[in-house]
Every structure is written in C-alpha cells, then in structure tokens.
Amino acid sequence: MKIFLAQAYISSLKKIAKHNPQLLLKIKSKTKLFKENPNTPGLKLHKLTGARHNQWSFSVTTSESYLFMRMTVLCSSKLVNTKKYTRRMTFQQKLEVMVAKNNSLLCVGLDPDKAKIPSRFLKTKDWIVKFNTYIIEQTRELVCCYKPDIAFYEAYGIWGLEQLKKTLDVIPKAIPVLLDAKRGSVGHTALMYAKNVFDYWKADAATVNIFTGISGLEPFLSYGDKWSFAYIASSNRDGQEFQKAKLTSGDMLYEFMAKKVQALDQKNVGAIVPATDPEVLTRVRQIMPDRIFLIPGIGAQGGEVKTTIESAKNSKSKGIIVSVSRSILYAENPKLEAQKLRDEINQYR
C-alpha cells in the first residue's frame, strides 16, 4: 500500500495514533526524491529510502491551503485523511508564506476598467475573466496577495458578479484574496456583509468602513481566520478635509479612529492608510506599531515608494501590503512593471 506522508501538527500526533492504532508514527529525515507530480502545485511524490517498491509518500507544502508542521505521519495500511487534524491557514499565515515565497509586499488590485482594457480581451463574452487571468498569470510570482475591488464587478450587475466568482477561482489557492468591499453598517447589517464577503465570496480578508462605529466591525472580526482592514484614512486627497478634522479631544479624526481600532483585543484587524500622505502614515504607525497596513496610493495616485515604506514598516520591516492597480494592469508589460515595483519596494524594507 502507499504510505501517506504529511506535515502535521505535533499536537495532533497523539490523536491520530489514538484513533488509528495501525499507524506507524515516525520522523523521516531523509527521503529519496523519486519524481514530482506536475499537476498538483506543492504536492510531491517521493520514494522512501530503504522502503519496499510499493511504499510511497505524498508531501504537502505550507504554500497550499492547509498549514502543516514538520512532522511525518506514515501509514502502511491506508491513506490517512489528515484534514480533520489540521486547521486552515489564516489570512496572516497565507500572507507571510507568499511574502517569503515571492519576496514581495506587492498586492495587485484586480479592478478591470473596460475603457482601459486592450481591445484583444474584449472580443469574448467573459472579457473580465480573460483580462484578469492574463494579469494573474503575469504577476502570480511577484505578489503577496490580490485585491479585487467589488465595485468594478457590481457595475455590471449579476453578470459582473459572476465574473468576480470566476476570477476568484482562477487565483491560486495559496495566494490570499483581499476583497475590497468597503462594507460597513450597524451591527445586524454588518453581520450580513461579513457573511457575504467571507462565507459566499470566501475572501481571506476584506476592507471595512468603520464610520458607523466599532460595533459595525465586530461581525467581521468574529471570523477569526479572516482579516479586516479598517478605513483610517483614504488615498483620496479630498478626504483630508474630513480625516484631519480636529476633535474636542485634540486628536484629528483619523488619529481617533486609529486609537479605537488599536484598542481592540482582536488581532485580525489592520488599517487602510494612504501612501499619498506620509505624515498620516508615520502617525498611524506610531499608534499601531504592529498592525498590518494596507497602503493604496502608489502608482497612478502619485505616492512615493521610498517615503511610504520607510514611514509605514514596523520594527520587523513587515506589516505592509502595498496595493497597486492601474499602473500595473494597463502597463504595456504588466509583469515587468510589477517586478520593477516589487524590487523598488524591497530596496527600502
């Protein structure tokens, strides 16, 4: 019989052994690579050193949908279903895997604008999916996540939402999806918004408008493996009229909102802070030393890479997702443009 080799949680080994007495639990440090399965990313077929000719193993890497620790589980009688002994990766875990794998803090926004898309993509019915697939193929080895803005799909009604669904199916499962939905409302309505983005769309993270209050954020945070990014300040320069309004406490509005979010016990919440205002970036990082920042505004909106990274990175040179859309999507060579921007970002990490 085949031997199933999985990287499993150490805490799960006793459970596996308890419910499967026939298992041979063993740490195997040396295996002889036999051949690789080309059809399944992250899945490799090995022949065990010194094993009989019918003893094989499958190894699942941390870049896929489930997170495994480095412990081997060997079964000589049947394949083991390890799904129930593992847990799904959180948004942060998936993000960290892709940041390391692609050496990237770059997030590409999948915001298809029909007026700007090259005409060769518009000849098919599913032109949005075709264009997005092209962008994904060009950038999948250069990004840490993708961020579709739902407005660019809702604009086309049901058909547009079907295009979003198909686009999400195209994105490699290992790459986290941050759905830019900008949802926010009173608690019972916010709960439905959260169910929509996380249960229906199955996004790994979402953007949330917290102007209705922290109670409108809580339903999103109840999804412990998902992340929510609260709007603290916008890359829209007109937004400063509101965001920098002085309150009686002496804080500007954006500072007050940042302090409210920072005070939350939940860790699965980040902040949206713009590259177009380094002063705001610096101040919010002071208030939120460890939260993840989603940073729009570089590229078409004029934010500077050097100033942005130096202002926003945390003490570990992490905690940043740089979101860029138009300057990559509509470039003559999206792959080259993404690579140039990724490398420029890395210069200042």
What are the key terms here?
349 residues; TIM Barrel; three-stranded antiparallel β-sheet; disordered N terminus
Short description:
The protein is α/β, with parallel strands linked by helices.
- The counted number of beta strands is 13
Strand order of the largest sheet: 7-6-13-12-11-10-9-8
Termini separation comes to: 49 Å
**CATH homologous superfamily name of the largest domain?**
Aldolase class I
Q: Report the helical percentage.
A: 25-40%
CATH architecture of the largest domain: Alpha-Beta Barrel
H and E string? HEEEEEHEHEHHEHEHEHHEHEHEHH
Structure commentary:
The chain is of the alpha/beta class. About 35% of the residues lie in helices and about 15% in strands. The chain has two domains: about 10-85, no CATH class; about 90-345, TIM Barrel (Alpha-Beta Barrel), CATH 3.20.20.70. It contains 13 helices and 13 strands. The chain has an eight-stranded parallel sheet. A three-stranded antiparallel sheet has the order 2-3-4, with no helix packed on it. Strands 1-5 form a two-stranded antiparallel ribbon. About 40% of the residues are buried. Residues about 1-85 have low confidence and may be disordered.
Task: Give the SSE map.
Blueprint: H1 10-19, E1 24-25, E2 31-36, E3 43-48, E4 56-60, E5 73-74, H2 91-102, E6 106-110, H3 127-139, E7 145-148, H4 151-154, H5 157-170, E8 178-183, H6 187-200, E9 205-208, H7 218-221, E10 227-231, H8 240-243, H9 253-262, E11 269-272, H10 278-287, E12 293-295, H11 305-312, E13 320-324, H12 326-329, H13 334-347
Parallel strand pairs: 6-7, 6-13, 8-9, 9-10, 10-11, 11-12, 12-13
Antiparallel strand pairs: 1-5, 2-3, 3-4
Helix pairs in contact: 3-5, 9-10, 10-11
